[in-house]
């Protein structure tokens, strides 16, 4: 019923994401072919191994019998980090922080969306408390974008336990629903927010009845769109490398 694909060539200290592309394309192509042969047509597939978005695309092309809506890549870890940072700043519990979204690629070009986030009971906007666009651009967004690399630099290993918790969050919500809460999933782009390229792109979604729908009421503006287009450009470059 569920496949969680973590078996990628590991990212190591000093290793660029593009170094992973060709190493992992063959891995996920073979996994996709195997899934296409023997798996249920309604299987849910979560790609965790990096570069996760592009690995999901490779897998989807190798498994044409599996609907693309049944394939997603993990960006919940980034969302959890962003949510925790906001909760820490406001001195509240993490469940009070809502409408946090990760857009784009699971990489250093991702857009952690503080602008649309809401803290229950707070009288001030998240963006204002976090210091406005300047502080977001110079401090908070890079902190989330580069957190994975910082952990590898400190531990010489990736953040395995945090990733495991995020996997559980992702699968639980996908199967049982997110109870109306916005969560982040990298899914095949359907034209929402102008992203109509053949890529797996992280969007804000709501999960219900074993599926998901992309939330359509997030305001991006020029600030958010700049980041989103940078992330899309990276995904298109990755796609051109391996296709």
UniProtKB/TrEMBL annotation:
<dbReference type="InterPro" id="IPR015955">
    <property type="entry name" value="Lactate_DH/Glyco_Ohase_4_C"/>
</dbReference>
<dbReference type="GO" id="GO:0016616">
    <property type="term" value="F:oxidoreductase activity, acting on the CH-OH group of donors, NAD or NADP as acceptor"/>
</dbReference>
<protein>
    <recommendedName>
        <fullName>Malate dehydrogenase</fullName>
    </recommendedName>
</protein>
<comment type="similarity">
    <text>Belongs to the LDH/MDH superfamily. MDH type 2 family.</text>
</comment>
<dbReference type="Pfam" id="PF00056">
    <property type="entry name" value="Ldh_1_N"/>
</dbReference>
<dbReference type="InterPro" id="IPR010945">
    <property type="entry name" value="Malate_DH_type2"/>
</dbReference>
<dbReference type="GO" id="GO:0006108">
    <property type="term" value="P:malate metabolic process"/>
</dbReference>
<dbReference type="InterPro" id="IPR036291">
    <property type="entry name" value="NAD(P)-bd_dom_sf"/>
</dbReference>
<dbReference type="InterPro" id="IPR001236">
    <property type="entry name" value="Lactate/malate_DH_N"/>
</dbReference>
<dbReference type="Pfam" id="PF02866">
    <property type="entry name" value="Ldh_1_C"/>
</dbReference>
<feature type="domain" description="Lactate/malate dehydrogenase N-terminal">
    <location>
        <begin position="1"/>
        <end position="71"/>
    </location>
</feature>
<dbReference type="InterPro" id="IPR022383">
    <property type="entry name" value="Lactate/malate_DH_C"/>
</dbReference>
<dbReference type="GO" id="GO:0016615">
    <property type="term" value="F:malate dehydrogenase activity"/>
</dbReference>
<keyword id="KW-0560">Oxidoreductase</keyword>
<feature type="domain" description="Lactate/malate dehydrogenase C-terminal">
    <location>
        <begin position="75"/>
        <end position="239"/>
    </location>
</feature>
């Amino acid at each position: 019923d569920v496949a969680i694909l973590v078996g990628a060539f590991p990212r190591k200290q000093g290793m660029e994401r593009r170094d992973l592309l060709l190493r992992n394309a063959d891995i996920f192509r073979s996994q996709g072919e195997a899934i296409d042969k023997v798996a249920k047509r309604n299987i849910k597939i979560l790609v965790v191994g990096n570069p996760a978005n592009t690995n999901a695309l490779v897998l989807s092309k190798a498994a044409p019998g599996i609907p693309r809506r049944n394939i997603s890549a993990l960006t919940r870890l980034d969302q959890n980090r962003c949510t925790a940072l906001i909760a820490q700043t406001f001195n509240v519990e993490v469940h009070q922080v809502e409408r946090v979204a990760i857009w784009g690629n699971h990489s250093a070009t991702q857009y952690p969306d503080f602008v649309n986030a809401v803290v229950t009971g707070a009288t001030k906007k998240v963006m204002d408390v976090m210091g406005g666009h300047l502080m977001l651009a110079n401090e908070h967004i890079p902190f989330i974008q580069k957190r994975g690399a910082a952990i590898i630099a400190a531990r010489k290993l990736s953040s395995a336990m945090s990733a495991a918790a995020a996997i559980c969050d992702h699968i639980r919500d996908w199967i049982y629903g997110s109870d109306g809460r916005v969560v982040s999933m990298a899914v095949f782009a359907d034209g929402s927010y102008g992203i109509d390229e053949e890529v797996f792109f992280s969007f804000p979604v709501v999960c219900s009845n074993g599926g998901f729908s992309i939330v359509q009421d997030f305001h991006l503006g020029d600030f958010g769109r700049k980041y989103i287009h940078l992330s899309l450009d990276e995904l298109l470059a990755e796609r051109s490398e391996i296709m």
